[in-house]
């Protein structure tokens, strides 16, 4: 696989501009005081579909030639990427197939259905997801748009970074969650394409810390069973994503589920916005490791806000 470069992020920004929103930034004096740094929150929870995923999905869909696009697209997703791909496919008038594992958050599955996707259910394992996606692809001829290991998806996710740096000049540190690594890879490529001196920090649940373990070991760890309430971060880090994060020197910080839940509540009350517990890992990391951010100007990515209001973690 050819990894995306900063030029691919620039191309993606132009490609998705007619479809994606320029999301706002917010800040809080109280949060700044708690951490001892200046924080600027990039609110991708206010992106179309309620998550940053719409950027990468739209870049992938609109990169296809007409003949290839006619067969539609397919992916496997526990929620936000499936919703984003269905929405992106709808902007082009093509079918979208989404393989959804059992146990996915109901609100996210409902959003996938509402976006017009053809849903295929499978067992809640990476192997089952990939096997069913391959079967659908073979039967339909649909183009596989991987949730995080697709270069077009990575480049699309990275488009939030130049937006953020224009909205908040002077940022010297970028903080984002990491699961499969699509967002983290895109952000790393985009940030260092603009300013190689920007510090890159990723937040990860302790119960799904394969990225931290992989980078510590110098090689990608194998399959694992996640134990975390952060449903959007239960995915094994992708192979190409591992190489990007390693090459860009991303510093991964672990947080507990309890810390993420407390940070989620704080974001709701201080910023007056709805964010997922997976998104809140970034603030949890800042509160747990304040020395890492002290005195810095930090751009923080809030990745999504698709929450089941009948099943809040508190």
Write the layout of secondary structure elements.
Layout: H1 6-16, E1 25-26, H2 29-35, E2 38-43, H3 53-62, H4 66-69, E3 73-76, H5 80-92, E4 96-101, H6 106-114, E5 118-122, H7 126-140, E6 143-144, H8 151-157, H9 160-167, E7 173-177, H10 182-194, E8 199-205, H11 210-217, H12 239-247, E9 251-255, H13 257-271, H14 281-288, H15 290-293, E10 297-302
Parallel strand pairs: 2-10, 3-4, 3-6, 4-5, 7-8, 7-10, 8-9
Antiparallel strand pairs: 1-2
Helix pairs in contact: 1-3, 1-8, 3-5, 3-8, 5-6, 8-10, 10-12, 13-14
Walk me through the structure:
With 314 residues, the protein is of the alpha/beta class. The chain has 2 domains: 6-52 and 152-302, Rossmann fold (3-Layer(aba) Sandwich), CATH 3.40.50.1100; 54-147, 3-Layer(aba) Sandwich (Rossmann fold). The chain is 45% helix and 15% strand. The chain has 15 helices and 10 strands. A 6-stranded mixed beta sheet has the order 1-2-10-7-8-9, with helices on both faces. A 4-stranded parallel beta sheet has the order 5-4-3-6, with helices on both faces. Strand 4, helix 6 and strand 5 form a beta-alpha-beta unit. Helix 3 (53-62) crosses helix 8. The mean pLDDT is 95.
């Amino acid at each position: 696989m050819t990894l995306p470069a900063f030029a691919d992020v620039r191309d993606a920004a132009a490609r998705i501009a007619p479809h994606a929103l320029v999301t706002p930034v917010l800040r809080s004096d109280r949060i700044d005081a708690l951490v001892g740094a200046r924080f600027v929150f990039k609110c991708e929870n206010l992106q179309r579909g309620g998550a940053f995923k719409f950027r990468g999905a739209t870049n992938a869909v609109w990169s296809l030639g007409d003949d290839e696009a006619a067969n539609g697209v397919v992916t496997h997703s526990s929620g936000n990427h499936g919703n984003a791909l269905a929405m992106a496919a709808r902007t082009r008038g093509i079918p979208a197939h989404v393989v959804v594992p059992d146990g996915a958050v109901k609100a996210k599955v409902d959003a996938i259905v509402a976006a017009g996707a053809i849903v295929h259910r499978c067992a809640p394992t990476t192997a089952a997801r990939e096997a069913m996606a391959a079967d659908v692809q073979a039967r339909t001829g649909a183009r596989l748009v991987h949730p995080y290991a697709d270069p077009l998806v990575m480049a699309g996710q990275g488009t939030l970074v130049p937006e953020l740096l224009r909205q908040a000049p002077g940022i010297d540190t970028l903080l984002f969650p990491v699961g499969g690594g699509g967002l983290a890879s895109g952000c790393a490529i985009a940030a260092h394409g603009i300013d190689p001196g920007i510090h890159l920090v990723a937040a990860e649940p302790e119960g799904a810390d394969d990225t931290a373990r992989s980078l510590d070991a110098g090689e990608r760890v194998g399959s694992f069973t996640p134990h975390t309430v952060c449903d959007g971060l239960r995915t094994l880090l992708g192979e190409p994503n591992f190489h990007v994060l390693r090459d860009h020197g991303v510093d991964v910080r672990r947080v507990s589920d309890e810390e993420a839940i407390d940070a989620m509540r704080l974001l709701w009350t201080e910023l007056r916005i709805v964010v997922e517990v997976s998104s809140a890992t970034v603030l949890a990391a800042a509160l747990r490791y304040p020395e890492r951010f002290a005195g810095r100007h930090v751009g923080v990515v809030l990745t999504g806000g698709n929450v089941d209001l009948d099943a809040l973690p508190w």
